[in-house]
Write a structure and sequence with these properties.
With about 170 residues, this protein is mainly α. It has helices at about 1-20, 25-45, 50-125, 130-165.
C-alpha cells in the first residue's frame, strides 16, 4: 500500500513540475516544437519501416565498432602497463648505475681539487707577493742555480784538463 502512495506521489509531483515548467512561454514553445518533430518522425518511420531498420542497424554497427575500438585500446594500454612493469627494474638499475657514475665523477673532482690545493700549498707563496714578484724571484733562483751548475761544470772541465795535463 505504501508503494501505491509512493508512485502516486511521484506521478503527482512530476505532473505539477511539468505544469509549472509550461507556464514559461519559451519552454512551452520548445516543448510544442519538439513534440511536433517527434510526431512527424514517428509517422515517417511508421510508413518507411525499412529505413527504421537500417537506422537501427547503422547505430548497432557504430556501437560495435566503438566497443571493439575501446577493447583494442584497453588491451593496448594493458600491454603498455605490462611493459612498464617489466622495464621498471631495468630503469631502476640504470638509475643506480648513473648515480654511481656521478658519484665516481664527483669523487674524482674532489681528489683533483685536493691535489691542486696540496700542490699550491707546497709552493707556499706569500700572501703579499704578486704574480710578477713570483716570476722574478723564481727566475732569479733559476739563474742562480744555472750559474752554480755552470760553475760546477767549469770546475769539472778544468779538473779534467789539469788531470790530462798532469798525465802528459
Amino acid at each position: 500500500m505504501s508503494q501505491n502512495k509512493l508512485m502516486t506521489g511521484l506521478l503527482v509531483g512530476a505532473a505539477v513540475g511539468v505544469i509549472i515548467s509550461l507556464l514559461d512561454k519559451n519552454t512551452r514553445n520548445d516543448v510544442v516544437q519538439k513534440s511536433k518533430k517527434a510526431t512527424n518522425n514517428a509517422k515517417y518511420y511508421a510508413s518507411n519501416k525499412d529505413e527504421l531498420v537500417q537506422a537501427f542497424q547503422h547505430q548497432a554497427e557504430r556501437a560495435q565498432n566503438l566497443y571493439s575500438r575501446i577493447s583494442e585500446d584497453a588491451s593496448y594500454v594493458g600491454s603498455k602497463v605490462n611493459e612498464l612493469k617489466d622495464m621498471s627494474p631495468q630503469v631502476k638499475e640504470m638509475a643506480l648505475e648513473t648515480k654511481e657514475a656521478f658519484m665516481d665523477t664527483k669523487n674524482a673532482v674532489v681528489e683533483t681539487k685536493d691535489d691542486v690545493i696540496s700542490a699550491v700549498k707546497e709552493d707556499n707563496p706569500s700572501p703579499t707577493s704578486s704574480l710578477t714578484d713570483d716570476e722574478n724571484s723564481s727566475s732569479k733562483s733559476n739563474d742562480n742555480s744555472s750559474t752554480s751548475n755552470n760553475n760546477s761544470g767549469k770546475s769539472n772541465q778544468s779538473g779534467t784538463n789539469s788531470n790530462s795535463g798532469n798525465r802528459s
